[in-house]
Amino acid sequence: MAPDPFDPHAETGAFLRTRRARLTPQDVGLPAYGRHRRVPGLRREELAQLAGVSVAYLTRLEQGRGHNVSAEVLDALSRALRLTATEHEHLTRLAKCHRTNRQSAPLPSQERVRPALRQMLTSLDGVPAYVTGWRSDLLAWNRTATALFGDWDQLPPRERNWARLVFLRPDSRRLFTDWEPQAAAAVGALRLHASCRPDDPALRSLVDELTTRSPDFARLWSHHDVKEQHHGTTRLHHPLAGALTLSYETLQLPDGSDQTLTIHHAEPDSPTAQNLRLLTSWGTTTPALN
Questions:
Q1: How far apart are CA 92 and CA 162, in angstroms?
Q2: Residue 40, number of CB atoms within 10 A of its CB
Q3: Which of 158, 194, 200, 260 is the most exposed place for a label (fewest CB within 10 A)?
Q4: Euclidean distance between CA atoms 246 and 149, whole angstroms
Q5: Longest dimension (CA), the chain
Q6: Which residue, 103, 41, 115, 43, is CA-closest to 289?
Q7: pLDDT by residue (tens digit) across 34-89?
Q8: SS (H, E, C) 227-290
Q9: Using 50, 70 and 90 to split pLDDT, how confident is the model at 215?
Q10: Structure letter (DSSP) for residue 198
Q11: CB crowding 249-284: b at 16 or more within 10 Å, else e
């Protein structure tokens, strides 16, 4: 049975196992003894040696039975596993979740966007911009985002969700030329939040639904990858504007809400910039910011 992604103990164990499986002895400077290794990647004994912990202790961690793991042990495991900064932060957050989940305040059933942020989105005319919450819900957007991605205001509120769009709507899937990186980033963002929010029924329902309805989501979710994609390039094939190449920046809002602002922009005077201006001018209505 798959580990419960909303149990930080179980998620810690699964995360460590998958990170260990992706490394080889050669990756970490160890000799690869034995022609036929029974496990992919590093053996548990090899990781314990690299991190300076006992095999018994590492076994407890990987079985989801670790409690009060010290920062020193987490740092040693992160170095041994060659974790990225985001992965190290995720592992540290999981350890903190062990101790704080029961004391956490109840989560709001619906996220709100500050009025000043709504006004800023409206002022960014010609630049696709939107705000998402910790469940990847689309909370607010501007007219240019509607022209580019579709009229989200026409969707039922429950379906205004970036992960649902990416995995469950064929029209959205066709829009992305580079769909696989978009899908992996959507899964990685959800994974970052799931384990620290065990009492969020809406987030659990979203993950359960996507796992059941989308084999691609289930495949990517099983990898236990975590990502914070702060910037990059999105390639689209729009049914009206054709091929578009846009850079984007995703900014964490500094108000403790776990909301992010994503802004797409085109190279000045490029064909994409010209087509984006035309696409925006064709739009006749401005969606409500929900």
A1: 26
A2: 11
A3: 158
A4: 13
A5: 67
A6: 115
A7: 566 677 789 999 999 999 999 999 999 999 887 788 999 999 999 999 999 989 99
A8: CCCCEEEEEEEECCCEEEEEEEEEEECCCCCCCEEEEEECCCCCHHHHHHHHHHHHCCCCCCCC
A9: very high
A10: T
A11: ebeeeeeebbbbbbbbbbeeeeebbebbeebbeeee
CA distances (Å), origin 16, targets 7, 47, 220: 14, 10, 16
Contact call for residues 23 and 43 (beta carbons, < 8 A): no
- Under 8 Å between Cβ of 253 and 246: no
Structure tokens at 230: 């702060």
Q: Which of 140, 143, 144 is nearest to 130 (CA)?
A: 140
| Side-by-side strand order, sheet with 231-238 | 138-141, 129-132, 260-265, 242-252, 231-238
Measure the CA–CA gap between 220 and 212, rounded to whole angstroms: 13
pTM of the model: 0.84
Burial status of residue 101 (CB atoms within 10 A of its CB: 0-12, 13-18, 19 or more): middle
Neighbours of 191 (CB within 10 A): 21
User: Residue 8: how many CB atoms within 10 A of its CB?
Assistant: 25
The answer to whether the beta carbons of residues 84 and 25 sit under 8 Å apart is no
Q: Is 130 helix (H, G, I), strand (E, B) or coil?
A: strand
Contacts of residue 34, Cβ cutoff 8 Å, sequence gap at least 6: none
Q: Which residue has the higher pLDDT, 98 or 223?
A: 223
Percent of the chain that is helix, strand, coil (3-state, to 5)? 50, 10, 35
Tokens representing 212? 């059941």
State how far the Cα of 58 lies from the Cα of 3, in Å rounded to an integer.
Answer: 17
Instruction: Tokens 């496990």: give the residue.
Output: 39
